[in-house]
């Protein structure tokens, strides 16, 4: 009788454990979807004022308040600001630019030369390096004497800008129409340039993750849907296509992790070829990435305004915390 009762208790425990694991798996799936949504919905409160020495009317303009999506780029939102302040400025033909509270221009891009094209990862041998995979000569230790064919701008997502600035919220910015700082910001706000950067970054990320198998097979309508879903901040429209770039066969991972490390807006970003697994098959974590790229994991890493745990698996981070260009943009600060 006692043995029968014990067996019954064991069966009950097994059933409870099975239900727990099923619920955990279902919860994990829902939770991951919610992570994507929460990252997508991240916004920054911004207060923009017109520079006092540029007000040409007796009436003072009201500050322009906006909730800026962390994922977007400045040229995609600056037109609204310009329209708001234009009635208070005589000459609005010039390009409007923004100044941080420390008096420095808000730099939304970095400009660089490009090598001819992105090669197929198969053409680089069994142990490719970032030099053989990426045409960029910026910030990655490339041969700067290699042939170049065009000028490219890497745009900083708004969330990255404010994370690097360690901005307090609401973030205070100054709008200016005069004396555009061409010595510090070569590229003027331009939506076409942003689109070119966006599509190029997707191709780079696809080369790293899938050996160019996804974007290369997309039709024009697919890339248009990605771009329009991103511009219009439509989660479902964007992710209906972007999920193809995040998929991988069961039990497998991305070939490499698309990421860039930033320490300061005045310094070039750091980008290396890092795989998501160790030779043993174990998943690499953020701590491994820091060791490989910076020689130490004694850094605070911030993305989307969140301090990341060093134990977070790189594969999971890439799938859930990448920006719409499919890159992880990581701000690193030394631990005090």
Structural commentary:
Involved in autophagic vesicle formation. By secondary structure, the protein is of the alpha+beta class. The protein is 36% helix and 16% strand. The chain contains 9 helices and 10 strands. About 17% of the residues have low confidence.
For the structure shown, list the relevant keywords:
336 residues, alpha+beta, 4-stranded mixed sheet, 9 helices, 10 strands, 36% helix, ubl conjugation, autophagy, ATG5_HBR, isopeptide bond, Autophagy protein 5
Topology readout:
Layout: H1 2-41, E1 43-50, E2 64-69, H2 78-85, E3 97-100, E4 109-114, H3 130-133, E5 150-155, H4 158-165, E6 171-176, H5 191-210, H6 220-231, H7 235-246, E7 259-262, H8 286-294, E8 299-303, E9 306-307, H9 314-321, E10 328-334
Parallel strand pairs: 1-6, 7-10
Antiparallel strand pairs: 1-2, 3-6, 4-5, 8-9, 8-10
Helix pairs in contact: 6-7
How is the main sheet built? Answer: 4 strands, mixed
Total number of beta strands: 10
- Give the percentage of residues in beta strands: 15-25%
Placed side by side, the strands forming the largest sheet appear as 2-1-6-3
Rounded to an integer in angstroms, the radius of gyration calculated over CA atoms is 23 Å
Identify the overall geometry.
globular
How many helices? The count is 9
């Amino acid at each position: 009788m006692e043995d029968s009762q014990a067996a019954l208790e064991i069966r009950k425990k097994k059933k409870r454990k099975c239900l727990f694991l099923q619920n955990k798996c279902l919860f994990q799936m829902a939770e991951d979807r919610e992570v994507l949504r929460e990252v997508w919905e991240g916004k920054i409160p911004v207060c923009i004022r017109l520079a006092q020495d540029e007000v040409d009317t007796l009436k003072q303009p009201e500050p322009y308040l906006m909730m800026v999506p962390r994922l977007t780029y400045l040229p995609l939102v600056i037109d609204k600001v310009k329209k708001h302040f234009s009635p208070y400025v005589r000459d609005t033909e010039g390009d409007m630019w923004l100044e941080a509270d420390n008096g420095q221009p808000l730099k939304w891009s970095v400009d660089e030369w490009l090598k001819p094209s992105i090669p197929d990862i198969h053409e680089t041998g069994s142990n490719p390096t970032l030099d053989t995979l990426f045409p960029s000569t910026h910030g990655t230790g490339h041969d700067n004497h290699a042939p170049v064919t065009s000028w490219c701008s890497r745009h900083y997502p708004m969330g990255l800008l404010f994370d690097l600035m360690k901005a307090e919220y609401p973030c205070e910015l100054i709008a200016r129409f005069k004396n555009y700082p061409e010595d510090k910001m070569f590229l003027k706000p331009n939506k076409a340039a942003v689109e070119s950067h966006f599509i190029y970054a997707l191709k780079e990320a696809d080369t790293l993750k899938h050996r160019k198998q996804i974007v290369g097979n997309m039709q024009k309508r697919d890339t248009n849907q990605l771009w329009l879903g991103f511009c219009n901040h439509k989660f479902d429209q964007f992710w209906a296509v972007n999920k193809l770039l995040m998929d991988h066969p069961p039990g497998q991972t991305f070939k490499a992790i698309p990421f860039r490390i930033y320490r300061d807006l005045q310094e070039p970003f750091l980008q290396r070829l890092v795989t998501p697994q160790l030779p043993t098959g174990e998943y690499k974590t953020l701590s491994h990435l820091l060791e490989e790229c910076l020689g130490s994991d004694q850094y605070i890493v911030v993305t989307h305004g969140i301090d990341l745990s060093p134990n977070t698996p790189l594969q999971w981070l890439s799938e859930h915390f990448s920006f719409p260009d499919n890159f992880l943009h990581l701000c690193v600060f030394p631990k005090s």
